[in-house]
Write a structure and sequence with these properties.
alpha+beta; 160 residues; 33% strand; 28% helix; Aminopeptidase
């Protein structure tokens, strides 16, 4: 399974390439993005190295790393979506830069990602959401996921 370009109404999901690191470092520069996930804004160099690892994929047979950047209509990158697929399950995540939050991009991208994954045979989709992250809970719900009572690393497991 490989990430292929797909589109929603306002976004094009472009398969990850290292050449996006510089622009994405700016998108991911706000410290508040990491309030629920931990970490800190990456440097261009660190992001390029991460993207190189991600595009090579995992060493485990049967596991796939699918990563896309989100390109809005005016040709600006605004965030990313990703899925780790094993067997018929995908764990998904999304991040939208603070300058573009509150405009429905995360919801649109997550719904598009779930639709793409299901069209490619993924039967179960999960996301891990911090209990206090109401915005991500709303995105999960919009994408058709339901919160379970299962906690994993301090986050609720949402699934479809």
């Amino acid at each position: 399974m490989i990430a292929t370009r797909f589109e929603t109404e306002r976004l094009a999901m472009l398969p990850l390439e290292t050449r996006y690191a510089e622009e994405m470092a700016g998108v991911l520069a706000a410290p508040e993005i990491y309030a629920f996930t931990g970490g800190e804004p990456p440097t261009v160099e660190a992001l390029a190295a991460r993207y190189e690892r991600q595009t090579k994929g995992p060493d485990r047979p049967g596991e796939y790393w699918l990563n896309w950047v989100l390109l809005q209509q005016n040709e600006t990158l605004v965030g990313y979506v990703q899925a780790t697929v094993t067997d018929d399950e995908a764990e998904i995540a999304w991040v939208v830069g603070t300058a573009w939050q509150g405009r429905g991009y995360a919801k649109e991208a997550a719904v598009g990602l779930v639709t793409w994954l299901e069209a490619h045979g993924v039967r179960r989709i999960v996301a891990l959401i911090h209990p206090d992250h109401a915005a991500s809970a709303a995105v999960s719900s919009a994408a058709g996921l339901t919160r379970t009572e299962v906690m994993q690393d301090g986050e609720y497991r949402w699934q479809k």
